[in-house]
Design goal:
This protein has 181 residues and is an alpha+beta fold. The chain has helices at 20-25, 32-43, 68-77, 96-108, 113-127, 129-133, 136-151, 167-171, and strands at residues 7-10, 15-18, 48-51, 82-87, 90-95. It contains eight helices and five strands, in the order ββααβαββααααα. It starts with 6 loop residues before the first strand and ends in a 10-residue tail after the last helix.
């Protein structure tokens, strides 16, 4: 059996749930997975068999190419806060956000890899919201155009509806309800 192929019996839902890899493996009736599923179905004949669906967050934002190197280069080329420090009798400009970025990178080294990037990405996008908003106006315009196209849909009469309206009814004024003038 493949280590990634999984099947579970969910007694509270009266279901047998498998992942996509297991579902693909049971297509071969001579596989161990197929035999296992048949054994489970024999033990629980009224349970429904289903493939597990992973719920995806539709609001999740993806920033392809937003690497540490890109963030560093962006901070260098778009300085927001510059601190002037005197060192050895000479004035030196220091990018405050670059120092903070370097500090976050250093601190993150002691954290789990899965926690490092999201924290730094969140900080970076808070400092530079123009990165997160890039292309949003174009998307909004495209959505408006799509909505306009949907609004222009014309409904055609069905077979059971009259095709021509009585012209006399359209020209007549509707009587006012009692008490209205």
């Amino acid at each position: 059996m493949n280590a990634k192929s999984k099947v579970k019996v969910l007694h509270n839902e009266s279901a047998i749930e498998m992942n996509k890899i297991f579902a693909k493996m049971i297509e071969n009736p001579q596989s161990d997975e197929y035999a296992l599923l048949q054994k489970i179905r024999q033990d629980y004949p009224v349970y429904k068999v289903r493939v597990r669906q992973i719920k995806k967050n539709p609001n999740q934002e993806f920033f392809k190419g937003l690497t540490y190197e890109y963030m560093r280069n962006y901070i260098i080329t778009h300085p927001k806060e510059i601190k002037i420090v005197e060192e050895n009798g000479k004035e030196k400009e220091i990018n405050v956000l670059l120092e903070k970025f370097d500090e976050l990178i250093l601190i993150s080294q002691c954290q789990a890899k899965s926690r490092r990037y999201p924290v730094i990405k969140k900080w970076f996008l808070a400092q530079h919201p123009e990165i997160a908003q890039f292309g949003m106006e174009a998307n909004a315009v495209a959505e408006e155009e799509k909505q306009d196209k949907n609004d222009k849909v014309v409904s055609f009469p069905q077979n059971n509806e009259p095709q021509e309206a009585d012209e006399n009814q359209e020209n007549e004024e509707m009587p006012l309800a009692s008490g209205e003038n």
